[in-house]
Write a structure and sequence with these properties.
The chain has no helices and 13 strands. The protein has 116 residues and is mostly beta strands. It has two domains: 40 residues, N-terminal domain of TfIIb; 58 residues, SH3 Domains (SH3 type barrels), CATH 2.30.30. Pfam families: YjdM, Zn_Ribbon_YjdM.
Length: 116
Amino acid sequence: MSEQLPACPKCQSEYTYQDAEMFICPECAHEWAEGENQLEDEQVNIQDAHGNILNDGDSVTVIKDLKIKGSSQVVKVGTKVKTIRLLADASDGHNIDCKIDGIGAIKLKSEYVKKA
């Protein structure tokens, strides 16, 4: 290949490919048009229950007992969750991805947490 494809502007992956006039990253599934070098403003302002803006890597505290669907486990009020990851495409409302000690990987709704 004589032509060098651009790295993904979202995750910096070098394994991009071209499909017609779009570039696609197989690692993060980001798509962008040819000549579009900068990442579009995809950041979504996700707020906690008190209106504070959350960021990736923040710590939050659960403000309500949350039953885990399909399980008998409960995330108790006051549970501190460290290093959250925000999800921009949360169609079901679960816009926080995290790991909770004793429970594992789980998705939470931002309306049930407060920034720690």
